[in-house]
Write a structure and sequence with these properties.
15 helices; alpha+beta; Hypothetical protein af1432; Beta-Lactamase; 422 residues; rod-shaped
């Protein structure tokens, strides 16, 4: 085979390795591939068996194939040790071993005594092992310095010597196979670990499920408590009850006018809950302040201004109301930063809080209280427009007014239609 032919064969083998998931099947395909493509008396493969720290034959192909089930190579086997030792001529591991070169070393050793006695014995043992295995060439497969296996190759059928191209081909094939083998081993180890973890995960899931059920029950109980507190606020102040229902309706209209995604169930529920519960913190406000007919004193205002913080704290334990609590906390912030409790400014204030601020103020202006008469809608619009950009978000003010006028227009048109029918 030419260099180009070996290159193409290597690409073909690599593609096959990618498709094959079973490592044993992969190695058998490699042994068959080598015998067919190069023409050898046999091609055998040994791999590292990590559990017993030894090397076992997984397959042997060819006319002189080895009985793989009868041979095991321990880690201290001379052939294995040869590849585990560093190459004295370089920094890395030894990349191949030719039987023909090994014979030269042994003969040279017998004639001129170049090696020490232990080295002589080692070379002879190595020669005998390769002869027993009918091997002309051995090529190791490494992955990050770890010897994963060895290609044990017989003679070429044409009795020619192995060329540098062929040896390079076997080296590349062995290294590619080692990478594929390591990947397969990693997958197998992960599967084993997953199997071992299944029972633990099952137990953990059961415990988590039990905890979740407890948490759900606690959340449901607390949710009922919050609703009870809200009803208590409404009972203390009849104005608040009607006020909240109207504010909720106006807030939804305004959000819709601003293209707020009301189709998103979570966002719609958050906005609705915030509109409904924004005054829940008033449960902590004394009746003397909450129902006072005249203006509040500075000290009374300090107490009143605590209700957004108290409302947020009441809602904090409820996971589903976490976003609602943030909206409630900031619904008295002013767009120019002069509001309370933290003086947030502009876009730093949640949009839902800015909507509540506008519709809350509108309803307060037009509603009749125990200490004053409600004012006309036009007056309320004028007050909102005066505060646009300072107390209120101007975009929200304009969206609110448009939404309100559209709603009023539909009601008027409906009344006129009924009159015509009558």
């Amino acid at each position: 085979m030419t260099s180009q032919a070996y290159h193409e064969a290597l690409i073909s083998a690599a593609k096959t390795m990618v498709r094959v998931q079973n490592p044993r099947s992969l190695l058998k395909m490699i042994a068959r591939f080598i015998v067919q493509q190069v023409g050898l008396t046999h091609a055998s493969i040994v791999i590292h068996e990590a559990k017993r720290n030894r090397y076992i034959f997984v397959d042997s192909k060819g006319s002189e194939r080895i009985p793989t089930k009868l041979i095991r190579l321990d880690r201290n086997n001379p052939l294995i040790e040869w590849f585990l030792e560093k190459d004295p001529k370089g920094k890395g591991k030894k990349s191949f071993l030719l039987y023909s070169e090994l014979l030269k070393w042994v003969n040279a050793n017998h004639t001129n005594g170049r090696y020490k006695e232990d080295q002589k014995a080692h070379l002879v043992e190595l020669k005998n092992i390769m002869a027993t295995l009918k091997s002309s060439l051995c090529v190791p497969g490494f992955y990050k310095g770890e010897l994963l296996g060895v290609l044990i190759l017989g003679e070429k059928i044409d009795h020619e010597s192995f060329t540098p191209d062929e040896i390079s081909f076997f080296q590349a094939l062995a290294n590619d196979a080692s990478i594929a083998l390591k990947a397969a081993n990693l997958r197998e180890n992960l599967l084993q670990q997953n199997l071992e973890l299944e029972l633990k995960q099952k137990e953990l899931k059961e415990k988590l499920h039990e905890i979740e059920l407890m948490r759900t029950r606690e959340q449901a109980t607390y949710h009922q408590i919050v609703l009870s507190l809200a009803r208590e606020v409404y009972a203390k102040d009849p104005y608040t009850s009607g006020h909240l229902a109207h504010v909720e309706k106006l807030g939804i209209m305004t959000a819709q006018e601003m293209s707020y995604d009301l189709k998103d169930e979570r966002k719609r529920n958050t906005l609705t809950a915030a509109l409904h519960l924004h005054d829940v913190g008033k449960i902590g406000i004394p009746d003397a302040i909450l129902k006072k007919k005249g203006p509040l004193t500075d000290e009374e205002w300090k107490v009143m201004r605590q209700h957004p913080i108290r409302g947020a704290k009441i809602l904090e334990p409820l996971t589903e109301f976490r976003d609602v609590g943030k909206i409630v906390l900031h619904h008295h912030e002013n767009y120019d930063g002069t509001g309370y409790p933290y003086g947030l400014k502009g876009e730093d204030i949640p949009l839902e809080s800015r909507i509540i601020s506008v519709v809350d103020a509108f309803h307060a202006i037009v509603s009749t209280r125990c200490y004053r008469e409600g004012r006309p809608v036009e007056v309320a619009f004028s007050e909102l427009e005066k505060g646009a950009g300072t107390q209120f978000d101007a975009d929200v003010v304009h969206a609110f007014i448009r939404a309100y006028q559209k709603a009023e227009g539909k009601q008027s048109a409906g009344k006129r239609s009924i009159e015509r029918i009558a």
